Amino acid sequence: MVKEIDYDLLIAIEESDVRKFQIALEKGANINGIVSEEYKKYGDFESSCGFTFLAVAAQMALYETINAHHDKKGFDKEEYEKEYSDAFEIFNTLKALKPNENQEGCTSAKICIEGIAQTREMELYDDPYCYGYDEFDEEMSEDEWISEDPAIEYLKSFKFE
After folding, report:
1. Neighbours of 13 (CB within 10 A)
2. Per-residue buried b or exposed e for 58-83, using 16+ beta carbons within 10 Å of the residue's own CB
3. Measured in whole angstroms, how far is the alpha carbon of residue 121 from the centre of its chain?
4. Do residues 108 and 55 touch, judged by C-beta distance below 8 A?
5. What is the CB neighbour count within 10 angstroms for residue 123?
6. How far is it, in rounded angstroms, from Cα 142 to Cα 125?
7. Which long-range contacts (C-beta less than 8 Å, at least 24 apart) are formed by 114-121?
8. Record's superkingdom (predicted)?
9. Does residue 94 contact residue 148 with C-beta atoms inside 8 Å?
10. Per-residue b/e over 17-48, b at no fewer than 16 CB within 10 Å?
């Protein structure tokens, strides 16, 4: 059974609403929550089903890196984090609270971030020009320049302990 306060926490995470998030935490929401089938009764949570709340927060903060356009100067992570500052505040707060001592939350978040990175890689293969790659270094293979994509490097920089 889904507790209302846990549902409120999930909604706050998905809406990147810091105020709602803080209220839900103060009321004792379960930061170790997992989006189960039961949540489908309350809304469209299919894309989050099976993820921990930490993973949902990671997805909300990092998903748009898939579409990040950049030029030869690279991906501006400070600008990106500023644009999604509320989502990052929630993500970093959950991360700092160290949910799930058994690492389930961290594993779920890692899988989510890896999925975002893989999607970015597939998008780059499909339409590299759309992402700022106007001219490729002919001496590098596609795999090489994709592995050096600054948005992918940024995604791979997230570590969980």
Report:
1. 29
2. bbbbbbebbebeeeeeebeeeebbee
3. 15
4. yes
5. 15
6. 8
7. 116/59, 116/62, 116/63, 116/65, 116/66, 116/155, 117/152, 117/155, 117/156, 119/66, 120/65, 120/66, 120/68, 120/149, 120/151, 120/152, 120/155, 121/146, 121/149, 121/152
8. Bacteria
9. no
10. beebbeebbeeebebbbbbeeebeeeeebeeb
The per-residue pLDDT for range 69-110, each reduced to its tens digit, is 765 566 788 999 999 999 999 999 998 887 655 577 788 888
* Tokens matching residue 63: 């998903």
Around Cβ 135, how many Cβ atoms within 10 Å?
7
Predicted confidence (pLDDT) per residue in 15-65, tens digit = 999 999 999 999 999 888 887 767 666 666 666 667 888 989 999 999 998
Taking the C-alpha atoms of residue 121 and residue 68, their distance in angstroms, rounded to an integer, is: 12
Type of residue numbered 42: Y
- Name the one residue in this structure whose structure tokens are 């030029």: 71
144 vs 126: CA distance, rounded Å: 15
